[in-house]
Amino acid sequence: MAINATCESTASPPVNGGASHSLTHGANGSLASALADTGVNELLGELDRDLIGLAPVKTRIREIAALLLVDRLRRERGFSAGGPSLHMCFTGNPGTGKTTVAMRMATILHRLGYIRKGHLVAVTRDDLVGQYIGHTAPKTKEVLKKAMGGVLFIDEAYYLYRPENERDYGQEAIEILLQVMENHRDDLVVILAGYKDRMARFFESNPGMSSRIAHHIDFPDYQADELALIAQRMLDAMHYRFDDEAKIVFDDYLTRRMAQPHFANARSVRNAIDRARLRHAYRLYSHPDAATSDESLTTIAAADLLASRVFADGDTR
Amino acid sequence: MRVTQGTFSFLPELTDEQIKRQIEYCLDKGWAVAIEYTDDPHPRNTFWEMYGAPMFDLRDAAGIIQELAACRKTFPQYYVRVTAFDSTHGVESITLAFIVNRPANEPGFRLVRQEEPGRTVRYTIESYAVAAKPEGARY
Fold this sequence. Notes:
The complex is a heterodimer of chains A (317) and B (139).
Chain A: H1 31-38, H2 40-50, H3 55-76, E1 88-92, H4 98-111, E2 120-123, H5 125-128, H6 136-147, E3 151-154, H7 170-183, E4 189-194, H8 196-205, H9 207-212, E5 215-219, H10 224-237, E6 241-242, H11 244-259, H12 265-286, H13 294-298, E7 299-300, H14 302-306
Parallel strand pairs in A: 1-4, 1-5, 2-3, 3-4, 6-7
Chain B: H1 16-29, E1 32-38, E2 49-50, H2 62-74, E3 79-86, E4 93-101, E5 109-115, E6 121-127
Antiparallel strand pairs in B: 1-2, 1-3, 3-4, 5-6
């Protein structure tokens, strides 16, 4: 979500319909040519470039890509290649890029021919769980049908299970989900996402779910320098820039903000920038006589950042 | 007598793979696919029962094939058809419909002639299978 703003190319569809690609090289086909065929290398490169940090995530995606590619070569040469289970669970703090990566994942899996369509259906509890008896199953099944051929992304999946209410319909949705994850492995990939501690509790009460998910990927928090880079990307995309003083102030802002509660990584950075834009606009508005050059329209000054509550001593928010 | 209604009805029965390809075509066109069934295949009976709601926003045929399998299992001796609805402004109607399941034995239709004054004859067709039997007891 948060990093989306930094990379406009995120949503670009595969250039050449990956799944329909037929690999024609024979027994001497090399990995390199297979790689070139799928174009997945560019995709992974793009991922490296567009997403800042997230090293463990990138490694795992590379591993998955490698496995699928090798499986493809094996199948061509007649070795058995049992379709791997690719259901995933993304855990991490808010704003660490879980949704963004899920979207990329759909494209990558499509390029590698693991899923047929490469679309992402993002849902939350409301889309799966009904409000009265007999409402949940059709609702969940409908969502699953929509996701077939692509990726089903269940955000904040731990909400599906509400232990405090034993008559909660979430359990029913989980059971249907489990069944489909097992029986329709070829048809869709399920990605669960949520905060780490809550997901851990969710899996404790649903061990079947945990064991059916092959890849548990943890999204690390961003470091201050990574956040500064992310901010830079966001500003570039919006045609803004910090002046020299503002850059230093923003670094200070990040350190202060990170120590405060409710810090949401890249999302907080975006919010900070949005508020700075507000103040920047208001500063220009309050001096209507001053000449508005391109320079003044695009430059966020230190004052715009310093007005933030974060710099107000004694105030914890 | 084999009932011929809808697209492809003069061709041999479509295989599941062929059905899937046709559904893919519909989805690529952006049509909403639905499954309908009936045991009254009279040509004037355009209102077949719907098996679930039309499946909007699907991208892949797998979900529809799954529903179709469930429908065939529930109604093995019924006529089942796949319909595709085009919601484009000005079209807004079914653009493709084909039969994907039919009863093992199709006795066909009887032509009923009704004499009218002045040597006029009124014709009616009547299904042998239906023959005033209630729904569910026909095939």
